[in-house]
């Protein structure tokens, strides 16, 4: 990338760039966005990284409820919507206005997929998030369910209640429940690929190859937005 | 007195024999709770701070319990899960208007599913001290789209009766002063930046909320009660409407 153009994304009139990664747990998306983050910062861009379910004001309450395992799907959905709104109103939107590159590890598509699997009304969830601006790129990391599940389970002795989707009562066995829950989420993601124009990434390729492809997409985007020549 | 007591017993027996009815939502509702039967009734009292809501609720509760009905109280910011969070968040952070709307919605959802619906299933009369209408009015006053708000609260149960205590803003401010000698930051709408003067801001903000309630009246079947009247006059009106509703077949 041409360094002398690095500040173009910070000019007063230009809206920033929003890049999102989506995919089930263990798809490798967090690794990939972390590498994009490092790369863009090393190129001198103003970058902001934001993660799902990370607003400090909302986090405490959510984790309290999760521990007690009494969150209904509607409450669960609304708490995540609150978390997202807080990050959106506080950081994402104002930073985009200032021309930042915002990198989001999960965005509204995670809510859409999970809440619908949990039995919330699709139109209701879509409306709740309809104020959020559409990303410039959504990288969707696609991996066979077994690979993703193994990546998660191998590093962990026990799955968390909501993580395993135990509230859905799909199976009494945590691992079986987790697998079924993740498969249903994949189905929801798959249905969004075309309408939401996801850039599908092969999460089984090696990390460097995937990163190369992602960086090429970002450069192409920057060229089209005239951030670089 | 004696005949009153007889009537009361008769009334509660009739209620018990009544068939349960299907749950009724504001709009599309909660997908996984569509076919639930409820036996109880859901009554909401809306109105600004110091409009006399809690006094009325106390009187109504006493009367209904004396008549043999089981009563449960609810209200905004009263869920076990979230109410503390909202208070804390308001103290420690400046929350955006959409964040606030969603926070309050989560609080209502938690109460609905964990308290209100179970109580209604068991045949309680649930009286809520404010409900989604206050939340819609506040958010709408802060510029959030009404359709978005309507959809957000489409999961909520539609109350059987909603009263709105309509009090003149100047009248209201005197009642607030009689209670606390001071005006609350949010109740004065200072965050809206309508005026730097808290008195002015209060009057203007309460007027805006009043207008929001007026706009909602038809859509959500709110019953307007003149809150400028004295406590007993207001109570008689409300209680008469509740008694009438309870004696009619649902």
What does this structure look like?
Chain A has 229 residues and is an alpha/beta fold. Chain A has helices at 29-42, 56-68, 73-97, 108-117, 122-128, 145-154, 174-192, 207-224, and strands at 17-22, 47-51, 101-105, 137-142, 199-202. Chain A has one domain (13-224): 3-Layer(aba) Sandwich (Rossmann fold), CATH 3.40.50. A five-stranded parallel sheet of chain A has the order 2-3-1-4-5, with helices on both faces. In chain A, α4 packs across α7. Chain A is globular, with a radius of gyration of 18 Å. Chain B has a domain at 27-166 and 217-243: 3-Layer(aba) Sandwich (Rossmann fold). Chain B contains nine helices and seven strands; from the N terminus they run αβββαβααβααβααβα. Chain B has helices at 2-17, 53-66, 83-92, 97-121, 132-141, 146-152, 169-180, 198-220, 231-247; strands at residues 21-22, 37-38, 41-46, 71-75, 125-129, 161-166, 222-226. In chain B, α2 (53-66) crosses α9 (231-247) and α4 (97-121) runs antiparallel to α5 (132-141). Chain B is of the alpha/beta class. The interface between A and B is medium-sized, with 31 and 33 residues.
Q: How many helices of chain B in DSSP terms? A: 9
Biggest beta sheet summary of chain B: 5 strands, parallel
Number-wise, the strands of chain B total 7
Determine the CATH superfamily of one domain in chain B.
P-loop containing nucleotide triphosphate hydrolases
**Strand line-up in the sheet with most strands of chain B:** 4-5-3-6-7
> Largest interface, by Cβ-Cβ below 8 angstroms: which chains and how many residues each?
A-B, 31 and 33 residues
Order of helices and strands of chain B: HEEEHEHHEHHEHHEH
Distance, first to last CA of chain B: 27 Å
Supply the CATH class of one domain in chain B. Alpha Beta
Sequence of strands across the biggest β-sheet of chain A:
2-3-1-4-5
DSSP, total strands of chain A: 5
How far apart the termini of chain A lie comes to 9 Å
Provide the CATH topology of chain A. Answer: Rossmann fold
Shape type of chain B: globular
CATH architect. name of one domain in chain B: 3-Layer(aba) Sandwich
Helix content of chain A: 40-55%
């Amino acid at each position: 990338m041409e360094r002398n153009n690095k500040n173009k994304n910070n000019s007063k009139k230009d809206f920033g760039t929003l890049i999102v990664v989506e995919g089930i747990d263990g798809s490798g998306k967090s690794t990939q966005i972390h590498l994009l983050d490092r790369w863009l910062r090393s190129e001198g861009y103003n970058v902001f990284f934001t993660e799902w379910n990370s607003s400090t004001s909302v986090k405490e309450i959510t984790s309290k409820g999760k521990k007690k395992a009494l969150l209904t799907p509607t409450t669960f959905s609304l708490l995540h919507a609150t978390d997202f709104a807080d990050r959106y109103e506080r950081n994402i939107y104002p930073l985009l206005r200032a021309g930042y590159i915002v990198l989001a590890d999960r965005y509204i598509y995670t809510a859409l997929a999970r809440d619908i699997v949990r039995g919330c009304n699709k139109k209701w969830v879509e409306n709740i998030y309809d104020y959020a601006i559409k990303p410039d790129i959504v990288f969707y990391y696609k991996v066979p369910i077994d690979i993703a599940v193994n990546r998660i389970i191998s590093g962990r002795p026990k799955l968390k209640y909501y993580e395993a989707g135990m509230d859905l009562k799909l199976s009494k066995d945590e691992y079986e429940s987790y697998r079924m829950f993740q498969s249903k989420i994949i189905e929801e993601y798959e249905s969004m690929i075309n309408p939401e124009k996801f850039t599908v990434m092969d999460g089984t390729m090696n990390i460097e190859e995937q990163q190369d492809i992602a960086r090429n997409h970002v450069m192409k985007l920057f060229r089209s937005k005239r951030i670089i020549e | 007195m004696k005949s009153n007591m007889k009537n009361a017993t008769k009334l509660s027996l009739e209620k018990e024999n009544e068939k349960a009815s299907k749950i009724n939502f504001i709009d599309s509702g909660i997908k996984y709770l569509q076919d639930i039967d409820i036996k109880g009734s859901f009554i909401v009292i809306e109105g600004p701070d110091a409009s006399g809501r809690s006094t009325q609720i106390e009187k109504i509760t006493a009367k209904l319990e004396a008549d043999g009905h089981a009563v449960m109280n609810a209200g905004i910011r009263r869920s076990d899960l979230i109410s503390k969070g909202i208070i804390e968040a308001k103290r420690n952070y400046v929350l955006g208007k959409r964040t606030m709307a969603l926070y309050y919605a989560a609080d209502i959802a938690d109460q609905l599913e964990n308290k209100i619906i179970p109580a209604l299933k068991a045949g309680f009369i649930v009286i809520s001290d404010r409900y989604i209408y206050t939340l819609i009015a506040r958010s709408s006053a802060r510029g959030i789209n009404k359709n978005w708000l309507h959809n957000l609260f489409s999961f909520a149960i539609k109350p059987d009766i909603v009263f709105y205590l309509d009090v003149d803003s100047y009248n209201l401010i005197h009642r607030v002063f009689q209670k606390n000698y001071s005006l609350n930051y949010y109740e004065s709408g200072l965050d809206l930046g309508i005026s730097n003067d808290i008195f002015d801001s209060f009057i203007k903000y309460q007027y805006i909320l009043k207008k929001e309630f007026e706009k909602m009246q038809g859509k959500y079947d709110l019953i307007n009660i003149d809150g400028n009247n004295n406590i007993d006059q207001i109570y008689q009106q409300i209680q008469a409407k509740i008694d009438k509703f309870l004696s009619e077949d649902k």
